[in-house]
Amino acid sequence: MVVVSPFSNADVEAAYSIFKQERINPWSLETFEKSALNDISLVAKSNDAIVGYILLSSVLDETTIEDITVDSTQRRKGIARILIASSFDNARAAGQEHVFLEVRESNASAIHLYRSSGFELIGERKNYYEAELDRQHPELVSNKSSPRENALIMKKVLSPLSAN
Ligand SMILES: CC(C)(COP(=O)(O)OP(=O)(O)OC[C@H]1O[C@@H](n2cnc3c(N)ncnc32)[C@H](O)[C@@H]1OP(=O)(O)O)[C@@H](O)C(=O)NCCC(=O)NCCS
After folding, report:
1. How many domains does the chain have?
2. CATH number, residue 41
3. Measured in angstroms, how far is the CA atom of residue 145 from the centroid of ligand 1?
4. Domain annotation covers residue 55
5. Most buried among 7, 24, 60, 116, by the most CB within 10 A?
6. How far apart are CA 47 and CA 63, in angstroms?
7. Residue 33: band (very low, low, confident or very high) from pLDDT cuts 50, 70, 90
């Protein structure tokens, strides 16, 4: 069973090691820790082991998903969906109305996740990310001399009810 809770200090290092495995230029541990321990970011555990996390920030009536990562051995079990649903519930309980995020244009699995969670595409930032040259879709790299990748901006409007 997957249990979702706010981060405790003891959760940060294990979550950071999941984060680092996925990033070309990972944030420092200090930056990750500050985001994780902000009282709204969430960690998912199975049998007391960390299997994923979602980093969130919040301003006025808006929540932003800064990052979501599930351990590579634990994917396609619905863990990201549970983390997102918990974030929606908490945001609604805090009176928030919108959730925003940015995602790499080539990140098909995350885009599927977000669309199926009710996010809609609202914009694009050209050449926003440093491109990951070994990714499966090099055609999406828009500037080959200084490789960059577009960011998609997505938004979810939270219903005031408990349904997602
Ligand atoms: C994106 C990610 C968080 C999904 O985590 P997950 O726990 O495997 O996702 P779930 O099992 O909850 O899947 C929920 C939905 O996401 C979509 N999805 C997840 N992985 C997918 C894949 N590899 N291909 C296509 N769709 C995928 C599907 O719609 C899935 O629903 P379904 O299983 O009913 O078809 C995970 O792949 C990950 O950590 N990726 C690396 C980090 C990353 O890119 N984070 C996003 C940063 S913006």
Report:
1. 1
2. 3.40.630.30
3. 31
4. yes
5. 7
6. 29
7. very high
